[in-house]
Design goal:
By secondary structure, the chain is of the alpha+beta class. The chain has a single domain, classed as S-adenosyl-L-methionine-dependent methyltransferases. It has one helix and four strands, in the order αββββ. Strand 1 and strand 2 form a beta hairpin. The longest helix has about 50 residues.
Length: about 130
């Protein structure tokens, strides 16, 4: 009679298996909060971009003469998901160009995120005078 050769798992193999499973679980558990934070930061960026784009569109809608170089306007604050977005619209000269013919509209939106501090988005557009 031949004895069957049975092989059992050793303690080291069982511990290695538990270590690998635990490592995978820890990585998967950490994936959720990181993806949530990334999603929230993306939301904040979209809100800030929309706010800046809205201010630029308003500035494009007014007559060119009412865009005075050096003037600054504070935008109405916007609160979304517990975050307050505030911004400014500034009219500036375009370097090297006549301000009577070309002006730059600069919109900057700011908000504060936990652990990241103050975040900013800046949009710029150049507006030219259209000849009558």
């Amino acid at each position: 009679m031949q004895a069957r050769n049975r092989r059992a798992f050793t303690l080291i193999e069982i511990l290695a298996c538990f270590f690998i499973v635990a490592l995978v679980l820890v990585l998967l558990i950490n994936l959720y909060p990181m993806s949530y934070l990334t999603m929230r930061r993306g939301e904040h960026l979209l809100v800030a971009d929309a706010m800046a784009q809205n201010a630029l569109e308003e500035a494009r809608a007014v007559p060119y003469e009412s865009l005075l170089v050096g003037s600054t306007r504070t935008l109405d604050p916007l609160v979304r998901t517990g975050i307050t977005f505030s911004g400014t619209r500034r009219i500036a000269e375009v370097p090297g160009l006549d301000p009577d013919l070309c002006r730059e509209i600069v919109v900057q939106v700011e908000w504060t995120e936990k652990n990241r501090g103050i975040q900013r988005v800046t949009h710029r557009v150049t507006r030219s005078r259209v000849a009558p």
